[in-house]
Amino acid sequence: RGDLMLITDHINLFGDNPLIDPNDEELGPRFPDMSEAYNQKLIELAKKVALKEKIRLQEGIYAGLTGPTLETPAEYRFLIKIGTDAVGMSTVPEVIVANHMGMKVLGISCITDLAIDGVIVKTSVEEILKVAADAEPIMTKLIKKVIEKID
C-alpha cells in the first residue's frame, strides 16, 4: 500500500465514454487514437526522475470502474485475468478527453488497497484515504520534478 504506479495503459470498464454525444471538431476528432493514451516519453522521464530521486515506482495497467463500491473477490480475479494491475474510479474518462484534445498524458496512481491472487486485503475508506494522504508528498515531489524536466 502506498506505492506509486505509472499507468502504461488502461482498460475502460465504465460502460460509458465521455466522448458520446455530438463531437466538437475544435476540441478534437470524433474517433481519437488511443494507441498511446499515456505518452511514452513522459513515462520514461518519470522513471528517470523516480530513479534519481529514489522514489519507488511501479508500472502497470489501470482499470477504470464506476464504483462507488470496492471490488468483490470475483471482480478482482476477473480483473487480474484480463491484465489489470490497479483499479480505480477515475482517471480513464479524463485520459480519454485529454487524448481527444491532443494532450500528452502521464498517469500516476497511488495504490491504496490490495488484492493478492484475488484475495482482498480488508480495508476501509478511512484507511484508503490515509494511505493516499501519506503518499501525497512523494507524489507531489515526483510530479514537480517531472514538470521541471519537461522541455
UniProtKB/TrEMBL annotation:
It holds the Pfam family PNP_UDP_1. The lineage of its organism: unclassified sequences, metagenomes, ecological metagenomes. Belongs to the PNP/MTAP phosphorylase family. SUPFAM superfamilies: Purine and uridine phosphorylases. This is purine-nucleoside phosphorylase. Pathway: Purine metabolism; purine nucleoside salvage. GO terms for biological process: nucleoside metabolic process. PANTHER family: METHYLTHIOADENOSINE/PURINE NUCLEOSIDE PHOSPHORYLASE (PTHR11904), PURINE NUCLEOSIDE PHOSPHORYLASE-RELATED (PTHR11904:SF9). Keywords: Glycosyltransferase, Transferase. Residues 2-148 form the Nucleoside phosphorylase domain. Coiled coil: none annotated. One of its GO terms (cellular component) is cytoplasm. Its EC number is 2.4.2.1. GO terms for molecular function: purine-nucleoside phosphorylase activity. InterPro entries: Nucleoside_phosphorylase_d, Nucleoside_phosphorylase_sf, Purine_phosphorylase.
